[in-house]
Amino acid sequence: MTLQSVKSKSNSPHGKGKLPWIELDGEVVTDSHFIIQFLERRFNLNTDSHLTRADLATKTAFQRMIEEHFYFAVTHSLYTAEFSKVQATFNGSSFGKKIIGYLIRGQLLKQTRSQGIGRHTQEEVKALCDEDLGAVSQLVGEKRFILGTGEQPSTLDAIMFGALSGIEALPFESDMGSLMHEKYPNLVRYVRTLRDVYWPDWPDLLISAGGKKPQ
Question: Is residue 7 part of a domain?
């Protein structure tokens, strides 16, 4: 499949204001959940056909936890206690980084407060992240992939990789990254396995984008 990266002046061209979004044959779809459903219908795919009904129920529950809880907890942590580290990774002049950083920070913290996570203390948010990571760690165990026999990927692996790789690959020390590395090494192994299977050129891509070579 040939992909094209397009810069847009808005988060979404049709008003939802959510990321990610795609456009295919003039039709715009927003949010990874609906994007996956749309692509499966369009190309007559069933990526989770090997899963049992119990597996599908587990997938739905963990997807909601990651997208509607864990994401907000990690975002709140990064843009409060560790905001200076995040800001340092932005491109541009020092002044530009400061302005852009505070604009993004304001929008994200407004979202986390509206969702509810942003009303907790930093220690409480970290504890919530710990609980979420612990649940995922138990589900993954020592399997290669997260559901079924562990030998075949599902859409939940894609969701988990998107959430966990962002912590595992941070270019600076963070509370969430340290928690994952020190307490849940099986999640580090899981993320790196997916990365090596599906993105063997990951190190080169990071370096070409100005990042550091991952472990």
Answer: no
